[in-house]
Amino acid sequence: MQVAVYAPATSANLSVGFDLLGLAVKRVDGEMLGDIVIVADFKEGDTSLVESSLPAVAFYGKGKFIGKLGNDPDKNLVFAAYKLFKAELDKLNLKVKPLSLTLYKNMPVGSGLGSSSSSSVAALVALNKFHGEPLGKNAMLTLMGELEGLVSGSPHYDNVAPAYLGGLQLMLPAAYPRYQGAPAEPVMVDEQQQTELTVSLPVFSQWIWVLAYPGIVVKTEDARRILPNSYSRREIIAQSSFMAGFVHALYFGDDELAANCLHDYVAEPYRVQLLPNYQELSALLYQAGAKACGISGSGPTYYALTDNYETAEKLRQVFAEHYLQNEEGFIHICETDFDGARVLSEAELERFLREQG
């Protein structure tokens, strides 16, 4: 038996929703943009990574960017996902099966496209499917957030939620611990409101996202470390106003207002120093017809938003001429991925493996 799961790339924050918004994306040409994890029965010839008294588990790393992860499986998010999943099953008095994990690492590390989330989400969904889905949505999201914490220093969900559930996800208060000095928790009649971590927001189907990865790495922990510890009242009011306006516009179908609300007072003013040619790039993108543009996740991937393919091609050209730094860089024209993580059919997996060579 084997289960192959694909988890899509994501663009977190969307400028206005730092740590609160995340969008799953897919290439408009149909090619997969994300990682794949295959969980299969442990076979003769596999090498177990654990002591003989425990259920056997093997790990294999493949794909274009696997060399960026190092050779130690104990530092790999897919193997970390296995250990967290096993611990969760132990709490339920269930046992993991002897199995092998194969990661196809097709997403560049430190890209701002949810690379770590794509791996960890694909791994956890595949493990859960392989075992008959003993864990529910919130339990899975909680584990995914913990895995993100291994990368960024604290659990957060703005990449894992869309990679898992698809679409545009808004993180709810339960997704994050209360800050020191926060007011008392609100009284909620509906207990579910106290535990739900995320909710899907409507998103305009005509929106096209041009995503450009310049080919350099920005580590999430470095991009977070560069941010200030506090913000002024003016900055908080401005960011809150744009975030409220954005959500309002989504629900009322006002795509112009929504696009005009995609501004960032929290992270982008500080993170632009990590990006090549930022000032000229932003101006050129707007001149080429972008409705909005900004940093994807913690960068260095940069997004430009439009609602037509003619403008998307112009934006692609701007990125090609002014943002790509080396042969590892790329530009993809994308739309919203509403599916999130999904099990690949045998035909899809065979096609993918053939393309891998």
UniProtKB/TrEMBL annotation:
Reaction catalysed by this enzyme: L-homoserine + ATP = O-phospho-L-homoserine + ADP + H(+)
Residues binding ATP, per UniProt: P108, V109, G110, S111, G112, L113, G114, S115, S116, S117, S118
Matching InterPro entries: GHMP_kinase_C_dom, GHMP_kinase_C_sf, GHMP_kinase_N_dom, GHMP_knse_ATP-bd_CS, Homoserine_kinase, Ribosomal_Su5_D2-typ_SF, Ribsml_uS5_D2-typ_fold_subgr
Coiled coil: none
Pfam families, sorted: GHMP_kinases_C, GHMP_kinases_N
Major localization listed first in the record, in broad terms: cytoplasm
Domain GHMP kinase N-terminal: 76-167
Listed GO MF terms: ATP binding; homoserine kinase activity
Enzyme Commission number(s) from the entry: 2.7.1.39
SUPFAM superfamilies membership: GHMP Kinase, C-terminal domain, Ribosomal protein S5 domain 2-like
Top-tier EC class: transferase
Pathway info: Amino-acid biosynthesis; L-threonine biosynthesis; L-threonine from L-aspartate: step 4/5
A GO biological-process term: threonine biosynthetic process
Domain GHMP kinase C-terminal: 253-323
Key words, A-Z: Amino-acid biosynthesis, ATP-binding, Cytoplasm, Kinase, Nucleotide-binding, Threonine biosynthesis, Transferase
Location relative to the cell: Cytoplasm
GO cellular component, one term: cytoplasm
UniProt family annotation: Belongs to the GHMP kinase family. Homoserine kinase subfamily.
Function, as annotated: Catalyzes the ATP-dependent phosphorylation of L-homoserine to L-homoserine phosphate.
HAMAP family: Homoser_kinase (MF_00384)
Full protein name: Homoserine kinase
Originating species: Psittacicella hinzii
